[in-house]
Task: inverse folding
């Protein structure tokens, strides 16, 4: 187990992504995935109020609703749920009024009294940051949210948020959620990690498996088209990208681990990373995700993968 930033949220160092619930995973499959994740020791679930509004016929909030139904049905212990605000079609932006209304809507869908970890999903430059910071602080003060976090924020804006929160005596963010994986590292390691280190925040990276590319499934552009995210993953099948997959394969075999498990273990080993986020559209995918949480790579193996990664940056 590990802890998120300065919080008291104890988690298995892997977060189950809820973006597929209500999209590529229907209700029954979502429940099977959640059951398998929890049975294997997983207790950290990531979602957002906008998931999955992009699907024809969906309105947003489908993922939260399914997670809420699962929580009500299973009544699991020690589960940490993170969700986000700013992108739901009915609650766009980060004005104080919107943040409050969106949080209340998320609480209703999740069927909980308090959101464990609440992210500002994307920066809203149309709203004064001071207003947003105060709105999140009010949610904590009123008991609707336990801890505050930010997602997709630049290092400069994170520092500005922290300065405003310190001046107001408000809770500081405990986590940052960036796009970070073996083929997308440079900006995060240069800009975000130093801020996280300075202020005791944890990284909870999304796209940890690069839309499936880092599972080894997509070894050519010909693989595009067999799933909603396949096209983006197949584009990463460059010579350098495939050399990285080969390195992951070889390192993983030394541990009897899959390519996906090895890629997640590398990410988990990086400075300030608490728990990579990875999703599963099939229950058969959950075991590899869980295996990553206990896979300990050697320093030489981590260096080898980092070197292979350097040439494969997207």
Result:
């Amino acid at each position: 187990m590990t802890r998120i930033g300065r919080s008291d949220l104890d988690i298995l160092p892997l977060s189950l992504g809820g973006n597929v619930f209500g999209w590529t995973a229907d209700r029954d499959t979502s429940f099977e995935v959640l059951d398998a994740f929890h049975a294997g020791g997983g207790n950290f679930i990531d979602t957002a109020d906008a998931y999955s509004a992009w699907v024809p016929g969906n309105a947003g909030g489908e993922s939260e609703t399914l997670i809420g139904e699962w929580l009500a049905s299973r009544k699991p212990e020690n589960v940490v749920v993170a969700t986000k605000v700013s992108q739901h079609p009915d609650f766009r932006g980060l004005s104080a009024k919107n943040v409050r209304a969106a949080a209340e809507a998320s609480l209703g869908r999740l069927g909980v009294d308090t959101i464990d970890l609440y992210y500002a999903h994307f920066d809203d430059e149309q709203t004064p940051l001071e207003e947003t910071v105060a709105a999140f602080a009010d949610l904590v003060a009123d008991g609707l949210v336990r801890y505050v976090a930010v997602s997709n924020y630049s290092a400069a804006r994170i520092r500005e948020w922290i300065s405003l929160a310190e001046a107001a005596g408000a809770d500081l963010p405990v986590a940052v959620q960036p796009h970070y994986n073996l083929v997308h590292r440079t900006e995060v390691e240069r800009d975000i990690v130093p801020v996280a280190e300075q202020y005791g925040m944890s990284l909870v990276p999304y796209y940890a498996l690069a839309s499936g590319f880092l599972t080894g499934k997509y070894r050519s552009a010909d693989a595009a088209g067999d799933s909603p995210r396949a096209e983006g993953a197949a584009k990463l099948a460059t010579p350098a990208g495939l050399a990285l997959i080969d390195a992951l394969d070889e390192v993983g075999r030394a541990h009897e681990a899959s390519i996906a498990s090895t890629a997640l273990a590398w990410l988990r080993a990086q400075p300030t990373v608490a728990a990579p986020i990875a999703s599963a559209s099939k229950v058969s995918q959950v075991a590899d995700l869980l295996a990553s949480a206990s896979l300990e790579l050697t320093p030489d193996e981590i260096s080898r993968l980092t070197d292979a990664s350097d040439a494969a940056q997207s």
